[in-house]
Amino acid sequence: MLSPSRAGMAAGVLLAYAGFCGAVFDHHRRRRARVASLAVSGAHQEGATLVAYASQTGFAEQLAMQTATALQGAGMPVHLLSFEELDARRLARVRQALFVVSTTGEGDAPDSASGFARRLLAGGGHDALRQLRYGVLALGDSSYARFCAFGHALSDWLQRHHARPLFDLIEVDNGDAGALRHWQNHLSALSGGTEIADWERPRYEHWQLAAREHLNPGSDGAPAFHLVLRPEGAVPGWQAGDIAEVGPCHDPADIGRLLSHLSMDGAAPVRCDAQTVTLAEALATRLLLPEAHLATMRALPPQQLVDALSPLPHREYSIASLPQDGQLELLVRQTRHADGRLGLASGWLTSHAPVGARIALRIRTNRSFHSPADGRPLVLIGNGTGLAGLRGHLKARALAGRHRNWLFFGERSARHDGFFADELAAWQAQGVLERVDLVYSRDGNALRYVQDALRERAPVLREWVEAGAAIYVCGSLQGMAGGVNDALADVLGEAGLRRLTEQGRYRRDVY
Known about the structure:
By secondary structure, the protein is of the alpha/beta class. It folds into three domains: 37-190, Rossmann fold (3-Layer(aba) Sandwich); 205-364, Translation factors (Elongation Factor Tu (Ef-tu), domain 3, Beta Barrel), CATH 2.40.30.10; 371-510, Rossmann fold. 38% of the residues lie in helices and 22% in strands. Strands 1, 2, 3, 4, 5 and 6 form a six-stranded parallel beta sheet that branches. A six-stranded antiparallel beta sheet has the order 12-9-14-7-8-13. Strand 4, helix 6 (149-160) and strand 5 form a beta-alpha-beta unit. The longest helix has 33 residues, at 4-36. 40% of the residues are buried. The model is unreliable at 1-17 and 27-44 (pLDDT under 50).
C-alpha cells in the first residue's frame, strides 16, 4: 500500500500527465474545430486555399479533411468543399486549390462529382482559370485499366484552361502510404515549411553518414553538400528517380537548452519507436510544443513526456546514386529561416549530425520518375541540387550502355557551383553525354537560365523529340520548373507538350 506522501506524488504526476495530454489534445482539437467551420467561413476569406474533394467511399473526403487541417494548423485560410458544390463561378474566384479525387468503376468520376464532370470537363474554356494554381491528389486502383483516370482528366482540363500546377499530379494506388507522405511534403512546402506531422507513424531504416563534402565554398548561393550514406546491413534496392525520405533531428544545442529549462537529465533511458534511447535522443526526433507548456512538461516523468509527443515529419531528397555504388548519395542545400536558424532536415544533414552519425532514412519508390525502359534519347533538365536526381539517371543510362543523353543544367557560377563537374566532363568524353548545356546565370553580363538555353537549342530539341526523346526535369519548383515548362511549350507547342505528358515522355521531380 502506498504511503500518503507517495500517493500524493503519484496523483500529482497523473494530474500533470493528464494536463499535458489535455494541452496536446486541445491543441489539435482547436485545429479540428477551426476546420469544421471552413466550408462556411473559408469561402469569405481573402486568399483562402480551396480544398475540394470527390469521394465515393469517404477516403478522399477523409484525406481532404486532413489536408485542410494541416494547412489551417499552419495558419493558412482554407475553404473545404465537396465537388457537389463546385462550379465555374466558384473556381473563377480561387487563386489556389488542392483537389483530392477518387476514380470509380472503369475510370469514372465519383457520383458526387458526376455533375461537375458533365458540366465542366466536357465544356468549353474558362479564361478566368489563368490565375489558378493547383495540385491534384488522385486516388485509384492500378488493377483497373484506367488507373486514376478522373484525377488525370481533371488535371488535363485545368491545364487546357491555363491553370498552373503547383506540383505534378500525385497518384495513390490503394492508399499507398508513400504517395500520401509525398502529398504531405508538398503541404509543408505550401505552408512555408511548417512542420506537419506524418499521418502514418514513420518506419525508418538506420544508415550511417559516411562522408560530407561542401561543394560550393565561396558561392553567393546557400551552401550545398554532397552526402554519402551507408546502410547498417545489406544495400537495399532502388532505381534512378526514387526518393530518400529522411527522419530529421533537432539541433542538439536546442535540445540541451530544453532539457535545462525542464531540469531533466538528457541521459535518462526511455522507450521511443520500439527502442531504448536517451531522453535527449528521443526529444530530438519529436515535434515540440510551444514554451507555454514548459511548466506542465517539467512535472512529467521522461517516458510520459516522450509518449505524448508526435514524431517529426520526414523530408524528401532525390537520390544521386545507384545500389551498384554500394552507398546512397544526396546533394543537399542548406536552408535558413528568417531568424537565422538552419532548416530542420538540411541543418541536421549538413551541420548538426557529425560524420559517422546514425541517420533515419527510408526509400520511397517514385515510379513516375523512373528512367525510360528502352534506349530512347533522354533530355535531362535541372538546376541546383536538382542535379542529384539527374545524376542517378545518367548513372543508370551509362550502366545500360544508353548514350543518347542531353543535359541542361543551371547554377550561379562555374567557378563555385560546378557540381560534379569532373564527372560530367568524363561522361561527355566517354560518350555517355552526347550533348551538354551548362548555364551559369551570374557568369555573363545578362542573367541567363536553362529555359533560355532551351529556346536557343529549339531546332535540335525538336529533332530529339521527333526521334522519340523523353524529357525529365528535376529541381526547384519556383522559377526553374515553371520557366522550363513555358520554354518547352514555346519550342514544342502547348498541344505537343501535352502529348508528351500523356505519352509519359515529359516527367518532372520538382520541389
